[in-house]
Specification:
- The complex is a heterotrimer of chains A (284), B (273) and C (774).
- By secondary structure, chain A is an all-alpha fold.
- Chain A has helices at residues 5-32, 36-47, 66-74, 76-109, 115-127, 130-143, 151-158, 162-173, 176-184, 189-200, 202-217, 221-226, 245-281.
- Chain A has 13 helices and no strands.
- Chain A starts with a helix and ends with a helix.
- The model of chain A is unreliable at 280-284 (pLDDT under 50).
- Chain B has one domain (49-272): MetI-like fold.
- In chain C, 28% of the residues lie in helices and 29% in strands.
- In chain C, helix 4 (380-392) links the parallel strand 24 and strand 25.
- Classes of the chains: A mainly alpha (284), B mainly alpha (273), C alpha+beta (774).
- Chains in contact: A-B, A-C, B-C.
- Chains A and B meet through helix 1, helix 2, helix 4, helix 5 and helix 6 of A and helix 1, helix 3, helix 4, helix 5 and helix 6 of B.
């Protein structure tokens, strides 16, 4: 492609936009490395009602790991929350992998009465905001004795219809001719699923898992509504009262620690995510 | 029928955790709040006449109608620019980053940025521009708008790039041979070929537009500025005040609207195909 | 592309490791919860310790130590209230009856120039007394140790603490400025803890945190244990041959025989992390195993063991009560024990009590019945009441849930949402402490049960006007306040005259100089908000505009210095627990008014300190204390508002408990949450009887200025005056936190000059209308 000066400007503006987009993340990281005094002097206007404006340099003047130390050594509840998050997220993902792929495969490659209707139903349920079903959900969970238990968060997540919607598009892409030839070779239904659908759709499945991870790692409404026992709270609702300066450092550090696994999973899965989303979005 | 067996496990779960509660919501929409006596369509009437409901519906519509097209267009613009360029990958990763940031952390940053004594006003005052109490004025809507764009731009860029990848380069070459310029290539080849991606992108953007409530709620609480008072705020507040009658009626109406929207989209999609 | 590969590898590795660990975690969690289920559905387990307050027959003003001696008798070293003499009492029948053995010799009695600080009993019956002595010349104090033998002969011990200046422990900053406080500051090194674990040596900690182990025979130091000064406040106890120190995250154990640190005790450390500080320790087997008292109850631990046995659950008896501070734990045998404690509400009336716990094999481990009590905020008074009530009903456990605490960061809104779901599902609380909740909405939605049939009035004589704060048109009573606060104002006649209206007061200038705007708005919200609501429940915008305009006029220019002057005080009074005083309390302003920083003082009045008010009035020119002016007249603030859930499965029990809260016994419980609605308790709380027959004074120090006043009993006519004032109150304040928050937020901006009163009123209307429209 030819090189235009206009393209250069475009490029620079995009790069600038990227920097702006990244600013909040830099902000959190640098805040987590500042000592309480430094935070107080920068953010006093917001937290303490002092005069003037808050300010925030991109790098801390006196970097310290104090808040991380506090978080890891002095707050045992932080670990509990971390593990709760891990349990919820992976519980949901494993369940979605088992249940969701099968359903997506069913929708993509089989015909049965009312299929269109079912799929429409799945889509509507996917779009329904949590608040709509909040009370009734709670009643159902209570009926099964799942309230105040991590399972009460995990199970509804497992049966979320979003992954079905995403993975459906991947499985749909698998050429019918491939399936037919496998059938001619004597492959049974479950063999088709295990040896054909799963490997070919793997990028889509991983994409779905990455999206699922991001979603359930930062879950807020469900745990807040369904969990009462503080020892079951996930990390995503751990935000110390940041109206006091002493705690804001903790909040920054906790944010970074929460962000980190998400970023790792994200970077690991990014290529798949792209490939995956691609496959789903393209040929339809 | 064998196909149904594949979705059976999922469907059973959906039944229990989504359809059953939904049926309960429908039932409740015809009953009184705590005493559970039948009131017919009284709840629907009350809700439709409720000014808070009207405001929430207006805001939610406005937000969706404005945000989704803007997001889709901006993302397309970025995707076309970044596509096949050398450093596109890095910039794209940068755009994707906000997706991984938990809502609670976003809220923390927002609070510091948009506070009346916050960072944004600091920068503005350095440039001798009068600041604003961002979250407590009409600008709250635009902050929500920007945070939606910020969070979802990367996602939509990737979606569009995927669409771009699906267009065979042969078509472009053929067009070039015929003397088509870059602009012409974009309007006559790229755009028509991307139509097929539009549906998925719209549905996913729509889905994500609901999630922006988290940030709004975490930053501004139950009663934000009236310009960002969304359906979920209303649902939340009704819930707290034991107004399950109104809540259920509004929920049923919302799902009917969703159904209509999806049908409409699918129709548009089918006709274009 | 290379970096892409790495990203993938790292990401995948992390993801895989997380999956593996989470799988392990998940399965473990699942199994654990099943186990619990099995336990709870199992047979009713029997056997529980029952509590009973011991009538010692002695009016103890103070108990220093209590111990079971080698010969099986029990002894107490304490001070008798009336005579002021310290002595030793003995019980030969497991604590049933007590008789005096001897009075301590004159050397260790309080003598004006020296006083008894600590005393510890040995198993052999000897006593080590730590005396605090004023150094000649009065430049400070120094500790002196005496050994008192079993017959009561005292011998001075030659041990002296190194006289280095100890670092001020962090906790001292909170101590009120009393006479004792000053002396404490002046003395150099001091003893902070004293134990007499065996017969051979005494263990004491000094003001630097260092622990000395001293041979009784020759006063020589056997070992010293260097603990750093952070450990000064750390719980510490010597029992048998072990010195146990509770560090932040672990239990440190030292062998008193060798002076060496023992290998760490994992289980003990873990329980120290999980529980609060331990309060007392005792042993039955010479220190092989220990009984440890926490607020959560009594635990038993065998050194080197792998289990910490929970023997008594503190939540169902006094051990868990907020104002119960154990001094000494004495194990009589495995089924009987005594606890000496400070308890402001003890029936002895002296703030000190001895409580006995006896194992009862045929009482269920857990009370069969459970009553759920829900509150948004911690309320220590209700905890006291729960404790009392449970003591009278051993078959009942009151599960008191507090939704908001400093650590959990839950907002009111989230808490109320959770409450809603629970009530709807039927898991909700039986009794609700409604402070901070939308009471009107709950009444309207039928969440609360009508309490009019409860006939609360039979419990005594009540302020009916307060009780009926939420009375419906047909006499239904869905919510009843058990306490109340009054918005009061004190100022010189130049700034305020009693009975004047809002307009008159607001025309004056300089009434509110140096006051932070936020608190000013909130305080006036209480007396004005009640007048804003129109018939149709919407707010009257003209009233709000008037409110903001006049308030701004009177407040004048905003000076940002007032924010920086703001100081927060936590009052810690011995035996009463700590309660943070709220910003809008009247008492917060006393020192500002007394020092002249403020020209007026107003706020929520909830305790009477007659001597102080009198002295302040005298200092001001024609000072007055009366109802605070406002757009509404005769306003009061209902507090500790009680309600019963209409979905409660056990309404009778809930009613019994609520009724108890209005009984004289519960109403008399001292706390900071407001005046009692029961008249006799009300008078008892304001009459200053604790100052009866004593000459005393107190001081308030504020920015270097000292304000002194005499503590005197409240004269009869003042009691009558306040009682009549309470009887004249007619209007409960508008209790809606959503409206209040909005008003305070917008009002603060108006007072700071950031927006005009009209704009403020418009903003309030916009938000509140949205809220009311829902």
């Amino acid at each position: 492609m030819a090189f235009y000066p206009g393209r250069m400007v475009l490029w620079l503006s995009l790069a600038a936009l990227a920097v702006i987009v990244l600013y909040p993340i830099v902000f959190l990281i640098s805040g987590s490395l500042m000592g309480n005094d430094e935070l107080a002097s920068y953010l006093g206007a917001v937290f303490l009602g002092k005069e003037g404006y808050a300010e925030f340099p991109p790098l801390p003047m006196y970097p310290t790991l104090q808040h991380y130390v506090e978080l890891f050594l002095d707050s045992p509840e932080f670990f509990v929350m971390f593990w709760n998050s891990v349990k919820i997220t992976f519980g949901v993902l494993i369940g979605q992998f088992l249940v969701g792929t099968m359903a997506a495969w069913g929708f993509a490659k089989y015909d049965f009465p009312w299929k269109k209707g079912f799929f429409l139903l799945y889509m509507i349920l996917m779009l329904l905001p949590f608040q709509v079903l909040m009370l009734s959900d709670y009643l159902v969970l209570d009926f099964f004795g799942l309230t105040d238990s991590l399972w009460g968060i995990i199970l509804p997540g497992v049966f979320s219809t979003f992954p079905v919607f995403i993975m459906y598009r991947f499985f749909k892409d698998i050429p019918d001719s491939l399936i037919e030839s496998a059938k001619l070779d004597g492959a049974k239904d479950w063999q088709l699923f295990l040896y054909l659908a799963l490997p070919i759709g793997s990028s889509g499945i991983i994409a779905c898992m990455v999206l699922g991870f991001l979603e359930y790692w930062s879950l807020i409404e469900q745990p807040m509504t369904f969990l009462k026992d503080k020892s079951l709270f996930p990390l995503s609702i751990f935000l110390p009262d940041i109206t006091s300066v002493e705690k804001s450092g903790m909040a920054f550090a906790a944010s970074v620690v929460t962000f980190l696994p998400a970023v790792l999973v994200f970077l690991g899965g990014q290529d798949y995510l792209e490939q995956g989303i691609m496959a789903g979005a393209v040929k339809e | 029928m064998r196909g149904f067996l594949w979705i059976l496990p999922s469907f059973l779960g959906v039944m229990v955790f989504y359809l059953l509660p939904y049926a309960d919501v429908v039932r409740r929409s015809f009953l009184g709040a705590v005493d559970n006596h039948f009131v017919g369509i009284e709840n629907y009437k009350t809700v439709l006449g409720n000014t808070a409901f009207q405001l929430a519906v207006k805001n939610t519509f406005l937000f969706t109608l404005l945000c989704i097209p803007v997001l889709i267009v901006v993302a397309l613009f970025c995707a076309v620019t970044l596509y096949k360029s050398k450093y596109g990958g890095i910039i794209k990763s940068a755009f994707l980053m906000p997706m991984a940031l938990p809502a609670v952390s976003v809220a923390l940053v927002w609070r510091l940025l948009f506070h009346s004594q916050g960072l944004l006003n600091h920068w503005l005052s350095d440039m001798n521009i009068a600041g604003n109490d961002w979250m407590n004025s009409g600008s709250a809507f635009w902050i929500l708008f920007i945070s939606y764009l910020w969070k979802n731009l990367g996602y939509d860029i990737v979606l569009w790039m995927a669409g771009l990848a699906g267009i065979s380069s042969n078509i472009y070459e053929a067009a070039r041979v015929d003397g088509a310029g870059e602009m012409q290539c974009f309007f006559y080849i790229t755009l028509p070929n991307l139509k097929s991606s539009l549906y998925t992108i719209t549905v996913l953007s729509f889905l994500n537009s609901f999630k922006v409530f988290r940030e709004a709620y975490l930053v501004a609480g139950d009663y934000p500025h009236e310009s960002i008072y969304m359906m979920q705020h209303l649902f939340n507040n009704w819930f707290r005040a034991f107004s399950f009658d109104k809540m259920a009626a509004a929920a049923v109406m919302e799902s009917v609207v969703l159904l209509a929207l999806i049908m409409l989209l699918q129709k548009a999609w089918d006709s274009k195909d | 592309m290379k970096c892409g590969k790495w990203r993938r590898v790292i990401g995948t590795l992390v993801a895989v490791s997380l999956i593996c660990t989470s799988l392990a975690g998940c399965s473990k969690g699942g199994a654990g919860s099943k186990e619990n289920d099995a336990q709870s559905t199992g047979e009713q387990a029997m056997g529980r310790f029952l509590e009973e307050e011991v009538d010692t027959g002695v009016k103890f003003k103070n108990i220093f130590d209590m111990k079971k001696l080698e010969d099986g008798s029990l002894r107490i070293v304490g001070t008798e209230e009336d005579s002021g003499e310290s002595g030793v009492w003995e019980s030969m029948d497991a604590g049933e009856t007590w008789k005096s053995v001897y009075n301590l010799p004159a050397e260790v009695q309080d003598r004006g120039i020296s006083w008894l600080d600590y005393a510890a009993l040995s198993p052999g019956g000897q006593i080590v007394c730590a005396i605090c002595e004023i150094v000649s010349g009065g430049s400070g104090t120094r500790p002196v140790l005496y050994l008192v033998d079993k017959e009561g002969k005292a011998n001075k011990m030659s041990f002296e603490l190194p006289q280095e200046n100890p670092e001020e422990p962090a906790g001292d900053a909170e101590q009120p400025e009393t006479e004792e406080g000053e002396q404490q500051a002046a003395r150099m090194n001091y003893i902070s803890k004293l134990y007499f674990p065996g017969n051979e040596w005494v263990v004491l900690q000094d003001g630097t945190g260092t622990v000395y182990q001293i041979n009784v025979s020759d006063s020589s130091v056997k070992y010293t244990y260097e603990l750093n000064s952070d450990m000064l406040g750390a719980p510490l106890c010597a029992v048998g041959n072990t010195l146990i120190v509770q560090d932040a995250a672990q239990a440190l154990c030292y062998d008193l025989q060798t002076g060496e640190q023992k290998p760490s005790e994992e289980i003990l450390s873990q329980s120290f992390v999980e529980n609060d500080s331990f309060r007392a320790i005792d042993t039955l087997d010479g220190g092989e195993s220990v009984y440890i008292l926490f607020q959560g109850g009594l635990y038993h631990y065998k050194f080197g063991g792998n289990v910490m046995e929970h023997i008594i659950d503190g939540s169902i008896n006094s051990l868990g009560a907020p104002a119960f501070f154990p001094i000494a734990l004495t194990m009589i045998d495995e089924q009987n024990l005594l606890v000496a404690a400070e308890d402001i509400n003890a029936s002895s009336g002296t703030g000190v009590c001895v409580v006995k716990y006896t194992y009862s094999a045929d009482t269920p481990v857990k009370p069969e019945k459970e009553l759920k009590l829900y509150s948004l905020y911690e309320n220590t008074a209700i905890r006291q009441c729960i404790n009392r009530f449970q003591k009278e009903h051993p078959d009942l456990y009151i599960n008191y849930q507090v939704a908001l605490s400093e650590e959990n960061g839950v907002t009111i809104s989230d808490a109320l949402k959770t409450l809603t779901t629970e009530i709807m599902v039927g898991n909700g609380p039986d009794v609700l402490l409604l402070d901070g909740m939308p009471v009107e909405t709950y009444i309207e939605k039928g969440v609360l049960k009508d309490l009019s049939a409860l006939s609360i009035e039979s419990g005594g004589s009540y302020f009916e006007n307060i009780l009926n704060a939420y009375q419906g048109e047909d006499g239904q009573r869905y919510a009843v306040p058990a306490r109340f606060k009054i918005p009061m104002m004190q100022a010189g006649s130049k700034y305020f005259s009693p009975g004047e209206d809002f307009n008159t007061f607001m025309e004056r200038k300089d009434t509110m100089v140096n006051m932070p705007p936020r608190e000013v708005v909130e305080k006036f919200w209480y007396t004005c908000g009640a007048a804003w609501q129109k018939e149709d429940k919407t707010l009257d915008q003209s009233k709000i505009t008037e409110f903001l305009t006049k308030l701004k006029h009177a407040y004048g220019e905003y000076d940002s210095d007032v924010e920086n002057n703001k100081t927060f005080f936590a009052f810690a009074t011995k035996g009463e627990g700590t309660e943070l005083v709220s910003d809008v309390d009247f008492s917060m302003g006393n020192m500002y008014l007394a020092s002249g920083t403020w020209n007026t003082n107003f706020g929520l009045y909830k305790e009477m300190e007659y001597g102080l008010h009198k002295a302040v009035n005298e200092k001001l020119e024609n000072g007055n204390l009366d109802l605070m002016p406002g757009q509404a007249d005769h306003v009061f603030i209902p507090a500790q508002v009680m309600g019963i859930s209409s979905k409660s499965a056990q309404p009778e029990m809930a009613e019994e408990f609520v009724k108890y809260l209005f009984s004289g016994e519960a109403q008399k419980i001292k706390q900071f949450g407001g005046f009692p609605v029961e008249k006799e308790s009300f008078c008892g709380m304001i009459d200053g009887h604790q100052y009866e027959g004593k000459d005393g004074g107190a001081t308030i120090t504020f920015e270097g200025e000292i304000f002194e006043y005499d503590t005197v009993p409240t004269p009869e006519e003042e009691i009558t005056k306040l009682t009549e004032l309470v009887e004249s109150l007619t209007t409960p304040c508008l209790q809606d936190d959503v409206i209040k928050e909005t008003v305070v937020e917008q009002g603060e901006k108006v007072l700071k000059g950031e927006q005009s009163p009209e704009a403020g009123a418009a903003a309030i209307m916009q938000k509140v209308n949205l809220y009311l429209a829902e």
